[in-house]
Amino acid sequence: MRQSTRPQVSIRRDGERSWLPLVLLILGLLLLVSHESGLLAPVENAAHYVLDPLQRVFWSVTGGTSGLFQTVFERRDLRLEVEELRAEVNALRVESVRLREYEAEVEELRALLNFTSEYPMSSILGADVVSRAACESYPCGEVVGLEPNPYLRYVAINVGAQQGVRAGMSVVGRGAALVGRVTEVGPRTARVQLLTDPDSSVAALLQTTRGTGLVVGQQDGTLQMEYVSQEEEITVGDIVLTSGLGGFMPKGLVIGQVTEVQQKEYETFQTATVRPAVDFSGLELALVITSFEQIPLDGMESD
Amino acid sequence: MAPRGKWGSEIDFYLALPLLTGVALIQTTVLSRIDLLGAHPNLLLLVVLIWAVVRGLDEGLVWAFVGGLILDLLSGGPLAATALALLSAAYLAGQSLGEEVGSVALRVTVLAALGALAYHVVLLLILSWTGHAVSWGSSLARVGVPSVVLNAVLAPVVLQPMRWLEQATDRDGVVV
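YS: structure for the whole thing
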């Protein structure tokens, strides 16, 4: 046994000035600028080859087997016969849980299937969510999302460039509800910016009056429909859909429901608070719309 | 920082990379699900902060930079944002502030609070600088301040395993 020769807690100090903080600061700023200009995309893609599979493994392990480990631990001190019986019970329990999972998945897939029959012009890809950023523990609207970065809201899904996913594609959940948009694509994963991310904005229309506006994500996890003309009548409960304007996503995807209207006489536009149709905390399956029929720009045709 | 031999540096490197990768993966897959009134536990931040306290500024900064970059690669945000935010936190924690305070746990708690605050402010600054929509008041009130408090409370819990790790990997002579 070696004897400790230093204090119980070693608190070390540099006797001399180090250039390391400055070097790392400059290196960090260079990386930041290079990333913003897109120069680092190949390097980042290479890093994703390593990190993405690890993330998927972590997700599946932490999401599914903690209860199993606990069961194994508890059985350690039991007699053989009891162990066998308990093993059988456990196997049945696992089977039961699996069946319940399948039941939920079938329900989810049925809902998604409805989407495909409603939107036959779209090509879609299914994906499991392998990492999530927002609304995990509490109902949406109450939670400020987190990713690793607590001020952003993204999820990673396990389909990527190899499956035909490209940046800018729309992602939907059950009931044709818009989840968000693909912003970054790895070989087998993609990062999706959720509707509720503060940087997210989607061209939208009100289902009843057809009034148009822009739905923007908010820090508190809600949505704001902005730039709605004062002439439009917005009522609480109105359904908000994608308008398809700009050609970036299909028309008619459900965004959410109006919960509050802010109208001031002296302002040019009115604003509405919108509750997202997607429960991001329960998001497990998502569909990437890889192609869709764009709205014909009739008004722009000259002849 | 005390001088470290070549062997010790290699051990640190081979230890740091998988450790920080594991912590970053735990952060994105497990801890991302936890939300306590807007506060989020940030294991990587705490690990880096405490490593800067027990191992000195330079090692804390390297861990902050490497760990931050790994987390950035798992994030939808700008690359190096977390790395720079963690650098600021590690820089604060690596100073000799409050060494006269008798309780290490208390000192780590205070440094964790200061470091976490610096982390959130720098993160918001970078997001703002890179063109993201940032609402300073709402972000700090809803996320920043609650997270500072939570991570300061959690710091003494993380201190114990980090002290063990520090002693277990020390090649300057001291393992019991």
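YS: worth flagging: Chain A touches chain B through 64 residues (CB under 8 Å).
IM: good catch. Also Helices of chain A lie at 20-36, 41-64, 66-75, 80-118.
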